[in-house]
Design brief:
Radius of gyration: 14 Å
Distance between the termini: 40 Å
Shape: globular
Order of helices and strands: EEEEEEEEEEE
Number of strands: 11
Helix content: under 10%
Strand content: over 45%
Oligomer: single chain
Amino acid sequence: QLQLVESGGGAVQPGGSLRLSCAASGFTLNNYVIGWFRQAPGKEREGVSCISSLGAFTNYADSVKGRFTISRDNAKNTVYLQMNSLKPEDTAVYYCASYSKGLTGRYYCSRESQNFESWGQGTQVTVSS
């Protein structure tokens, strides 16, 4: 079974930083597109970022562009989301997810949630004073 496990969430003050990790088990991460999503109470799930399987292509939601950075360390089978300049509106449960697009996924990714096949359990991020 393919599994993704998120970690690194917690509570932070506005302007602070967190780094989330997404560790893969049961498959080789470098063959998959990875995305980060978030969902706050009463809101729709939002695609935050994604990274192509080779890591050269990334995509970000306008709400986080310039503050968040997605990266991957295939030797550790892990994808990261570095979150800087955090705001209260970033408070949400954050999920990582994966999908396979074969050759296309090496060079491109999409943040459309319906494309993703495997999901982690989520990690809570809370930004408050």
